[in-house]
Amino acid sequence: MAAEDNREAQRGDDHEESSPLLKEIDTKICSKGDAKTASFVPPHAAEEYGWTADGLPVSHGSVIGEPIGRNQWNSGLFSCLGRNDEFCSSDLEVCLLGSVAPCVLYGTNAERLGSAPGTFSNHCLTYLGLYFVGNSLFGWNCLAPWFSYSSRSAIRRKFNLEGSFEAMNRSCGCCGSCIEDEMQREHMETTCDFVTHVLCHTCALCQEGRELRRKVLHPGFNAQSTVVVIPPGEQTMGRK
Fold it and tell me: Which residue intervals make up region (Disordered) (predicted)?
């Protein structure tokens, strides 16, 4: 009996292996596996499309391989009074701060970029110290731009804004031949940010302040919701 059961089991296995339905399923599974392996491209073999100023790949948010265009600044570098829009009063405030107290303007810009506790005081006091040292030793504010130019690069990367080097290349077309990749372009843009802060320091701070006030709320408006407990009304003792 055991031998007959084994023979019947072997016949069943042979029947299952020779079944055309199983063969069809196997061919489908193999074809799907081949398609997956054919569509898979190793990361090192994929084409590198570069990256944008804010660190995102060029393919992010667009067709793969299609470059993402840079955004324009809301106001020009020498638009001291800003624009005639709903932010005109804020633009006048930025112009006044940049002329009288650039340390306060730089501190508020840094506070809007990173709302960590103590951001305003740390940046404002450091700028103020460099301002006094530069004016005392060299007669002009030559040290603070070395500290503040990084905020311009951070704003440009955060909002994917067009840099000075790219704007110059777009207008004259004479600077693009010396750039080989996006990394080198970013180095040139950072250098242009530094030069802009050294040569037009107050105008650069004001332009950054106008840009941030149009795109980033002040950290004070991002406060967490609080629970307000209202005390009960006046109560009286009742007599039975």
Answer: 1-24
DSSP state of 22: H
Residue 232 placed within a domain: no
Query: Would you state the structure tokens that stand for residue 69, as one six-digit string?
Result: 């265009």
Q: 194 is in which domain, residue-wise? A: 87-215
pLDDT tens digits, residue range 168-189? 888 777 766 677 778 888 999 9
Burial bucket for residue 140 (CB in 10 Å: 0-12, 13-18, 19+): exposed
Please state the length of the chain: 240
Q: Is residue 5 part of a domain?
A: no
Asked if residue 140 belongs to a domain, the reply is yes
pLDDT for residue 50 = 44
Extract the tokens encoding 120.
């305003």
Total number of domains constituting the chain: 1
Nearest Cα neighbor of 153 from 180, 115, 188, 128 is 188
d(CA 215, CA 112): 10
Give the CB-side neighbour count of residue 169, counting CA atoms within 13 A: 14
Task: Supply 204's token pair.
Answer: 């650069």
Q: Mind listing the pLDDT tens digit for each residue in 53-79?
A: 444 444 444 445 455 678 999 999 999
Q: Would you call 51 helix, strand, or coil by DSSP?
A: strand
Residue 191 lies in a domain: yes
Assign 17 to helix, strand or coil: helix
Q: How far apart are CA 32 and CA 38, in angstroms?
A: 10
